Amino acid sequence: MASRPKALGNELSLVRLIGRLAARVPARDVVVGIGDDAAVLRLAGFQAQARLILSTDMMIEGSHFLRNLHPPRAVGYKALARALSDLAAMGAKPVACLLSLALPKDLDRRWLLEFLRGFTRASARWNVPLVGGDLGGAEQVMCDVVVVGQASPRHLLTRAGARPGDWIVVSGSLGGAALGLESRRGPAWKRHLYPEPRLQLGIALRPRLGARAAIDISDGLLIDLHRLCLASGVSAELSQHPPRFAGANLKQVLSGGEDYELLFAVPPNRRVPAQLCGVPLTVIGRFERGRPGRIRLLGRELEPAGWDHFGSVLATSTDAELGGFATGRSEVGQ
User: Fold this and answer.
1) 11-151 under CATH 3.30.1360.30, yes or no
2) Which has the higher per-residue pLDDT, 305 or 43?
3) How would residue 140 be classed by pLDDT, with cut points 50, 70 and 90?
4) CATH for the stretch 167-316
């Protein structure tokens, strides 16, 4: 017999619950945290001449997760991990985060507790203290995560620095998250539920490899590569298949999304090592002159397929199209 749902409680009790869990993560540079009108951070904790990096990421029930499919602890963990991936792409070190939640009144309090346990697990793992947020009511679970980071000018990257001739490099392997969502088992399912933001790698890209531009692969390799190309005013020539997660098909590799690996540009005179910060690196092609945003794989042009919230999954690269490949100037980024 299923146990009865446990009531959420009032707003003050939820704030206190979140505050107790957040307090388990060291917060050395937090002067004022959860419970006041705003958080206060100690600027002395920032590096000299560091740039403040801000990003926000949403997780919405029915779009990013299903309550009857995704474990709440994984949803909480992933909510922070995917936001941190944006900082990784900028070469930034996380400093703090904020979490805003909109919750149905009939939500089981135990679901929320497990969500918060997952969130604080990620918070502790990457040493990112939760310093505030907001609460509201809604028909479905929605959360918004704001991450605060810092980056020195010598580490900072954007999407707008790639040049013709630069190597196109990708970290890790692709297609695992999409395979996991489809199969719901094994290492791929774990990859879907618990992504790993490449924070150390992101910080190392510019000083170690001279990287000039970067983006995290959240919506799919093709669409995110297209975005980087547009920002940099270049096209992309892929000379080999991207590294494939074991069991993933080519469509999952190219447009599955949610891998949260890094895609970046490295000058042609720099040697790309087999791995950096313990993460495998693969050169998959070069950036070229040509129509900005154009992508060719082994000489054949592909549409930038991937996830689009307002157009669902772009189906322009069909299975038939992909079947032919089954075998075969600011201070930033200069």
Assistant:
1) no
2) 305
3) very high
4) 3.90.650.10
Give the C-alpha separation, 243 to 293, whole Å: 21
Q: In CATH terms, are 11-151 and 167-316 the same topology?
A: no
Beta-bridge mates of residue 102 = 136, 142
Q: In this model, does residue 325 exceed pLDDT 80?
A: no
Q: How confident is the model at residue 274 (pLDDT cuts 50, 70, 90)?
A: very high
Q: In this predicted model, what pLDDT tens digit does every residue of 66-82 receive, in sequence order?
A: 999 999 999 999 999 99
pTM: predicted TM-score of the whole model, two decimal places: 0.84
Distance CA 294, CA 154 (A): 29
**Per-residue confidence (pLDDT) for residue 153, from 0 to 100:** 82
Domain ranges of the chain: 11-151, 167-316
